[in-house]
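To make this tangible, we now present a fold written out as C-alpha cells:
***
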Amino acid sequence: MQLAVILIFLFVYLGMFLGEIPGLALDRTGIALVGAILVMMTGVLEPMQAWDAVDVPTIALLFGLMVVSSQFRLGGFYSAVTLRLSEWDLSPARFLFWLMAVSGILSAILANDIVCLAMTPILIEGCLKRGLNPIPFAIGLACSANVGSAATLIGNPQNMLIGQKLQVSFSGYLLDSLVPVLLGMVASWGLLCRLYHHRWHTNLPPRTTPHQPFNAWQSSKGFVVVMVLLLIFLFTSLPRELAALAAAGVLLMSRRMASREMLGLVDWQVLVLFIGLFVVNHALESSGVLGGVIQGMQGAGIDPTHPGLLFGLSVILSNLVSNVPAVMLLLPVATHPLAAAVLALSSTLAGNLIIVGSIANIIVVDKAAEFGITISWREHAHAGVPITGITLLIAGGWLWLRGGF
C-alpha cells in the first residue's frame, strides 16, 4: 500500500513541477483530481475517508471570497480603478508607484489572481494610449499583487489554507506581515524604477479592449460587504468561512446581477485543485510515509520544523511545484508559533522569482500576450529575481527580529 501511495504522490507532484503530464492534456488541476481518483481506486483511502480528508472550512472560505470578488468584477470596479489610474497626469515612476500601491491593497483584500485578471488588459490599453512601455507596469502589477497578497490571510489561496489549518488569528498574522509587506512593496517599486528608468516609453500603436462598465451601486455594495467582512475577521471570533459564505449569500440575493454570472466567475479550477491535493496529501500522511521522512530528517540532524529551514524549504518547493502544493506538503511540520507567518510570507514572496512561480504572473503574461506584448522568462527574471531576493531578505530579517529564527 505504501508503494501505491508513493507512486501516486510522485505522479501528482511531478505533474505540479512540470505543469502537465507529457503526452496528456492534463493541467495541474486535472493532475490533482486524477491523483485523488487513483487514491480511491487503489484502495489507499475509501471514498468517505477521501471526503473527510477535504478541509471543508478552507474550501468554503475560498468559495465565499471568490463570490465577493466576482461582485467587483461584474460591477466594473477593477476596470474603473485601472482606467482612472492610467488617465492621471503622472510621471512613469509615479504612475508605477500608484499602480503597485492600489494593486497591492486590492490583492490583500480581494485575492491577487482576480486583481491581475481584471486589471491587466485595462492597464496595457492605458499604457499604449499614453505611449508607455507596458512591460514594467505589467511586471509591477504582478509583483505588487503577489507581495500585497502576503499581507493578510485572505490575500491568496495558500494564505487562506494556512490561516484555516493552523487556526491563525487574522489580526495576529497582520502584525507579523504588515511591516515586511510594506517594505517589500517600496523595495520592489524602487528596483523596477532602477531597471526601467531608460525604457519607460514605446512606439507601439494603441489598442482597445472591451471592459465591464462601472456600476457605482454594485461596486458600493461589494465595498460595504468587504468592509463588514474585514471587521468581522479583525474583531470577532466568528469562523471566517461562515462569514465569507454569509457575505456571498448576501451578494447573490440581487435583483439585477444574475447569480449565474457571479458563480460563472468563481475559479472552480482552484477549488478542484485544493480538493485533489487534500486527498493525495492525506493519503501520504496517513500511510506513514511522510512521518518516516520527517523522522529520517530529524535523525540526520535536520529539523524541518525549525522556522529557518521551513522558510528555505517553502521558497524552494514553491518554485518547484507551485505555492499551494508546497504549503500543503509543509503544513504537517508547521508547529513553531511563527510557522504561519513563515510559510505564508516565504511561499507568497517566492512566487515572484519566475513566471510559473505564481498564477498571478502567468495571468499577467498571458493577458499581455493577447495585446502582442511578449514578457519572456528572461525579461521577467530580470526583475523577478532581485525583487524576490530583497523581499525574502526583508521578510526573513523581520521574522528573525520577531523571534522566529
